[in-house]
Amino acid sequence: MQNHDKNLTTGPIIPLIWQSAWPMMLSIFFYTLYSIVDTFWVSKISTDAIAAVSISQVALFIMISLSMGMAVGSSVVMGMHIGAKQKEQAEKVLGQSFVIATIMAVFFTVLSLIFREPFLQVSGAIGTIYAPALIYFTISAAGSILFFYLINIMFAFNSEGDTLTLTKLFALSTVVNIGLDPLLIFGYGPIPAMGIAGAAYATLISQLIFIIISLKVLSGADRAVQFSFKNICYMPASVKRILNIGVPAALTQVVNPIGLALLISIVSATFAEPGATAFSLIFRLEMFAYIPAIGFGMAAMAMIGQSIGAGNFERAMEVFKKASLMGFASATVLGLLLMLGGRFIIGAFTTDALVMQYSLSYLFIVAGTYGFLAVGMVVSSVFQAIGKSWPGFWLFFIKFLLFAVPLSYGATQYFNLGIWSVWVIIAVSNLALAVGGYLWLRQSLLKTQS
After folding, report:
1. CA distance 11 to 5
2. Measuring CA to CA, how many Å separate 253 from each of 52, 102, 256?
């Protein structure tokens, strides 16, 4: 059986999870490398440039969240059609997913460009960080439709179980980004030096190349689900089904950047630029620790979606248990590695002693809980796979807006505790997310099965 026509409803679960997850992990690794490469090259401009890119991308995380939420809805419905052997319906869902992505992209672009200044200020863009952050954010937001299509394509490959092709495409796109970054940031020959704007343009060009090649691949006659422009249509019943899953999934994703923006704002208000830079830098580095959770979560989403489409609820339960365990173990190991190599890694981006101190204290306190955060992320993905996205939203809403943000504000503003208190609160919230989410989802799957 070819990789792009993969049946995820039969066969041993752990090998199938791994076969679907590791290419997805590599894909996310390559995409995460986009931002790390940007950070590395703009760090040669100034320390403020590091924070500017990081903070503007926290605001842009809302774009990522909206696009992923809508793509999740399409992916789940498409996966169920694949599991039920309904190829024509799956292809129509793929086509209309681009209609939804376009609508969401236009909405986000207009909103973000109109309110870009308050977006950045709330995200912690203070002092000398603000001007370069505004430049990077404006360019990225203006080209945001590319990212909406990119995420849509990523979930389309995942629904089919063809994550290996996706990995190759992301690798190519990342190589292009790595080559363009220094060229556009510092200039060469007739190409002028664009500074921080060059990093934003490099990312957009890389995304455009990814989209063009991906659509050509998805249009191949041998695809399990083939992309065709004739299927770019509007089907009310299917759109309603997608939105029922996608809207709460999008809100779930949006809670994360909003929560992070508020936390960075709290840290910035108390610990100024060094605190904002440290938090922003660590946030980008720890995205690598999330990769296993996202990979196993998306593998579980595809497998559970197809299993439910085939009426195999018992298999869906087993996939959930094994994906959670694999996510916990791998994220915990990566967290420990970050703790051990933190000084060396952070030193590649900054020599500021206070930024280093804040960053290392974060790693020593929080990195050991990455495994619990991974379980929470897998739980959210599985809730989406069974068509129940609201529980995932409430879990992350409670984690950030009812727990981490108000407690961090109180600890720093009323009790005058050090930055370590924010790190402790984040660590405890990761633990609570995992325990509460696992128990809630296990009960939901048992009810679905019965």
Report:
1. 15
2. 22, 18, 6
